[in-house]
Design a protein that fits this description.
Layout lengths: L2 E4 L4 E5 L3 E7 L5 E8 L51 E4 L10 E9 L18 E8 L5 E10 L4 E10 L5 E13 L4 E9 L2 E9 L3 E7 L11 E6 L9 E6 L5 E7 L5 E7 L6 E3 L4 E12 L2 H16 L13 E3 L1 H4 L5 H14 L3 E4 L21 H4 L3 H10 L3 E6 L3 E3 L3 H5 L18 E3 L5 H15 L4 E6 L19 H19 L4 E4 L9 H4 L4 E3 L6 H12 L7 E6 L12 H8 L3 E5 L7 H23 L1 E4 L8 E7 L5 E8 L10 E2 L9 E4 L5 E3 H6 L2 E2 L9 E8 L2
Parallel strand pairs: 20-21, 20-29, 21-22, 22-25, 25-26, 26-27, 27-28, 28-29
Antiparallel strand pairs: 1-2, 2-3, 3-4, 5-10, 6-7, 7-8, 8-9, 9-19, 10-17, 10-18, 11-12, 11-14, 13-16, 14-15, 15-19, 16-17, 23-24, 30-31, 31-32, 32-37, 33-36, 34-35, 34-37
Helix pairs in contact: 3-5, 7-8, 10-11, 11-12
Bound molecules: alpha-D-galactopyranose.
Amino acid sequence: MSIIFTENEKVFTLHTKASTYQMKVDQYGFLLHLYYGRRTEGCMDYLLHYADRGFSGNPYEAGKDRTYSLDVLPQELPSSGTGDYRSPAVIVKNRDGSYGCDLRYQTHRIIAGKYSLPGLPAVYADEEEAETLEVDLEDPVTKVRVTLYYGILPELDIITRSLRVTNRGEGKIYLEKIQSACLDWVWGDYDLITFYGRHAMERSLQRTPIAHGAQVIGSRRGTSSHQYNPMMIVADREAGEDTGSCWAMSFVYSGNFKGEAEKDQFQQVRVQLGLSDELFSYPLEEGEVFYAPEAVLTYSGQGLSRLSQNLHRCFRTHVCRGKYRDGVRPVLLNSWEAAYFDFTGEEIYQFAKEASKLGIEMLVLDDGWFGKRDDDFSGLGDWQVNEEKLGETLGHLIGRINGLGMKFGIWFEPEGINEDSELYRLHPDWVLAVPGRKPVRARYQLVLDFSRKDVVDYMFQEICKVLDQGNIEYIKWDMNRSLSDCFSRATKDQGRVMHDYVLGLYDLLERLVQRYPNLLLEGCSGGGGRFDAGMLYYSPQIWCSDNSDAIDRVKIQYGTSFGYPISAVGSHVSAVPNHQTGRVTPFKTRGIVAMAGTFGYEMDPRKLSEEEKQEMAEQIKTYHKYGDLIQNGLYFRLTDPFVREVGAWEFLSEDASQVLVSAVMLEIHGNMTVNYIRLKGLPQGCMYQDQESKQIYASDALMETGILLPVELGEYQSYQMHFVKVS
Ligand code: GLA
């Protein structure tokens, strides 16, 4: 039993293997948060303190008791209008124009299995793997009901949160703010770790003390964004990779979001994650319901490595779905950096022919195969195969590529549209645009209004028409701009458009994965602009960044690894000088970096020297050898590449029998100092053998002082070491 309700104390205790979460219904029916941390027993309501606090108001029923104030007490779902002046999780605008929602406990249910959310991605689990707690809270005056959902996956150390709002009163209300998860700490000095970035340089780590005043991250771009990832870590000031308490909150959502952290007047800390309240005012008619997207929580008492591993395992095995969930993904060659818009069917076939000889398993035809699309000025939206450009039908080309023993994949950007397209000429009202204003353009394109069902239905048909032309086994699903001009001609309530857009996207993706269960989807948004757990529900891998430079990638993939599994990280070897940075790195280094992800290539294989071709064939063999260990093993960050002159990471099989260590030199200097790399997570008192040198090492020494990397001349050298446990 992972959920326990003690009737006399009215306390809910949620246990996972290594954590405990506790809350209590108090004498007024408010749901107070008591505890989230290392696994423990007993009731923690002694942590609450009551004192007369000036300027912190009291609920009416408290009468003359000035020591009870929601401004001070930790809560599960703080709501605006109840006397809590910290940032609320819920703001409701009522039928009479008033703001406020006074949520009191009604009832609860404990259910076997994990809840799901209609129309939204969410963690899934078998009945034996999870339990669900539903707690109904209601405003006695407006009859607005909020059902809190808690999903507990004990073995994974995961607790999920979501909520459903039901308008059980009379008339229409508006949800002005809905956070999916709120965590209150009654004291403590914590750091907030967030991941910021930009196009082609995503997910850099920032760690700052949680201070007085709000620290806010988020997206108002309609996608989860390159700029801030929808995931946050709260860490004890002392916590590091291997020690200390830390908590992660990750949003299973691909649109606008808001993450906030705040230290209050009494040094208490509140951290919340959920939908952005900007451009959001969601109408609920009488009887209607609204589901908030899910937030995934996990706690580690053993530092950030364990925290990341908890998220990795959860997303890999309980968010990702489909045929490719557990398997090593096909090694692919993508045409983008090899040809951009300039190709014929024959050229693509020649890429494939050369690639297949070297062991590549799938050819992906990127942008440019449809409509009038020889550059990014036109054609987007016209998903009709440009047979003239290909010089053959798509079916014929696919047949030829399959004939080489290779799979075939194709690029789509279903949400984008050029004004210079047949679709736009036919349906100018299908885009997001404010009547009477000129819309903001980005990459010469506008965005289709996916909040409209007719638009989503049309796009589903168009994609199916292409997919039915041949044996297409993979789609790269791109989205190359941020949303703006968020006005839909199909609704009066514009405050719902940003969220409905994401629901439309999810609906389309769900219909496709249902109709084509064997299809592998790779998410993409100008690289890693929509790298979130929501997309992973549909696409088990996401192109991590448009920056394929191996050295920058070490940093981008380092940041990404805090929240997402290696099996989700799309990573390719590309040509040098690198197209984004102009940097030249060794082929081997590019391979080792791309192997910390779903491996592939992004170059014209015909242009490689014989030596490089040989190296490529070897690399692919190496990837096959370690593929399972890489995708399904435990991942450890061995260095911080923002601090050290070497980037290093480790894959450890769950049974600890095998270890693969990768290291990339990020700098080179005269009279170079030696770099040592400490291994992690090995069992004590064991011996490991380096499979190349055959040298045997003690696991404790490998973890204490580490191995030393060779000192070699030349920039960006790299090493991959495979150890096997011998005793
Ligand atoms: C985006 C993607 C690239 C490529 C181009 C095609 O930028 O991230 O990988 O697919 O679009 O236009």
